[in-house]
């Protein structure tokens, strides 16, 4: 059978691959998306459990996720998320009144957080003042400096005289959920990216957004529609087994045939990328294994009645880390559905589901008075053993550049060297950067007689459109 030819083959249908494919197809390239799973969306997807729509993970975003929000607009789903008008997080603790961490309107950064930190009741007055000094010091940590990546966030906090209670009751609320690892095991550079970009540089940047629909309805299904409208070939259940350079093209051997492409975006997780990357493209791809992975576990509890008014909340001094009200998004018709998201959860992977459910049921009863008399109508656990790469000190040197030594081959994925943590924003940024690299290659080879006439200078200018929108968040 004759192999089909395309300008670009995008290997992987997660957010990075979706972003790259749409950006290039918008610019006029002929694109084939090859995804081994039966659906698009990568790690952000939903499944059905009876009448419920269940997301495997509880993904939130911040206002500073400019590339991610631009992708939602392109997918036509920006109206399916809700975004706070100001950063506001309820903080729950057993036996304590609900406390709120919220920014003050009208104050510039970083003063917008001053009242919240000075009034943060879970800390002593001395701890609050020291936390303010640590926040000021974080503003001057350069997230792009190699030296920052060699230090841990825990080392930084120790140097700033942050008590264990301060770290546990304040800093970990953001750090663990954003980096999926505790402060002692987290890169200071990546932590600085989170805190500086999201909370300390712009007053509005840290406002929290979350989906109003399931993740598949937010990303995967609209992406398939948009790509179809653009004439992109989308092949699911199509596992790429090998990629080799063949003259001026790439030959991709897949589970259902061969594909020839002038260029390739390799947008799969780093273990798969290390197996697939062609010889001569990068040095020491085997080192990508050192990025490793960390887990996220979600405990899903359905109650026979509403037990809280909080759409989401953080918890301290509790086995609960973050809880989310999933009632509306899931389609539950009565009662309330809460999902507890547990990051840095490697130790929980082998614990029995019944044990995790009982622990979280009891913990929620200690946090939420309404849960104490309520009955569970259903409960289950979802586990993501490789939810993110391990965002530890030294990972900067392990994360490869988007462009490779082979012209026409680009890498994408939240694990690539974007300077961002493993987040939806990092994934989309990597996809956009890969599209720009491929646009350069296609433009530079436009004089090739086999090049379609619609490629050339126009594809580069189009693919880069909107790139400046992301600059303020860097």
Automatic annotation (TrEMBL):
Amine oxidase domain mapped to chain residues: 15-438
SUPFAM superfamilies membership: FAD/NAD(P)-binding domain
Region of interest: Disordered: 443-474
A GO molecular-function descriptor: oxidoreductase activity
Family matches, as NCBIfam families: HpnE
Protein name, as recorded: Phytoene dehydrogenase
Species for this entry: Actinocatenispora sera
């Amino acid at each position: 059978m004759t192999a089909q030819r395309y300008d670009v083959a995008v290997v992987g249908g997660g957010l990075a691959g979706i972003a790259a494919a749409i950006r290039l197809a918008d610019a006029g390239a002929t694109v084939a998306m090859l995804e081994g799973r039966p659906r698009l969306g990568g790690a952000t997807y939903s499944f059905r459990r009876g009448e419920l729509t269940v997301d495997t993970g509880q993904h939130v975003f911040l206002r500073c996720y400019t590339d991610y929000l631009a992708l939602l607009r392109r997918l036509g789903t920006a109206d399916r998320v809700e975004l706070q008008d100001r950063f506001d997080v309820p903080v729950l603790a057993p036996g304590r009144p609900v406390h709120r961490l919220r920014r003050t309107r009208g104050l510039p950064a970083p003063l917008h957080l001053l009242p919240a930190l000075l009034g943060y009741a879970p800390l002593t007055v001395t701890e609050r003042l020291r936390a303010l000094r640590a926040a000021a010091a974080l503003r001057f940590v350069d997230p792009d400096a190699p030296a920052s990546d060699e230090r841990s966030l825990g080392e930084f906090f120790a140097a700033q005289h942050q008590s264990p209670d301060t770290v546990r009751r304040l800093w970990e609320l953001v750090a663990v959920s954003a980096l999926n690892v505790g402060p002692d095991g987290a890169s200071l550079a990546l932590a600085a990216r989170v805190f500086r970009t999201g909370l300390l540089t712009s007053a509005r940047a840290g406002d929290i957004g979350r989906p109003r629909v399931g993740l598949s309805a937010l990303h995967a299904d609209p992406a398939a529609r948009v790509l179809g409208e653009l004439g992109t070939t989308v092949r699911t259940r199509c596992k790429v087994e090998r990629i080799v350079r063949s003259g001026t093209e790439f030959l991709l051997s897949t589970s259902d045939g061969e594909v020839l492409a002038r260029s390739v975006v390799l947008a799969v997780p780093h273990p798969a990328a290390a197996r697939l990357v062609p010889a001569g493209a990068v040095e020491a791809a085997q080192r990508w294994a050192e990025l490793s992975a960390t887990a996220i576990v979600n405990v899903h509890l359905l109650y026979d009645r509403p037990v809280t008014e909080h759409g989401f909340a953080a918890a301290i001094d509790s086995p609960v880390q973050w809880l989310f009200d999933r009632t509306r998004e899931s389609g539950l018709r009565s009662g309330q559905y809460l999902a507890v998201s547990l990051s840095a959860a490697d130790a929980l992977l082998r614990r029995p589901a019944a044990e995790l459910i009982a622990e979280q049921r009891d913990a929620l009863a200690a946090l939420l008075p309404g849960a104490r008399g309520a009955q569970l109508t259903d409960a289950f656990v979802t586990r993501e053993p490789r939810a993110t790469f391990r965002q530890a000190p030294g990972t900067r040197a392990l994360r490869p550049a988007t462009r490779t030594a082979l012209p026409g081959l680009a890498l994408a994925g939240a694990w690539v060297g974007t300077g961002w943590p493993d987040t939806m924003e990092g994934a989309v940024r990597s996809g956009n950067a890969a599209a720009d690299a491929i646009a350069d290659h296609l433009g530079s080879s436009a004089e090739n007689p086999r090049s379609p006439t619609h490629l050339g200078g126009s594809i580069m200018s189009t693919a880069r459109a909107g790139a400046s929108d992301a600059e303020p968040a860097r």
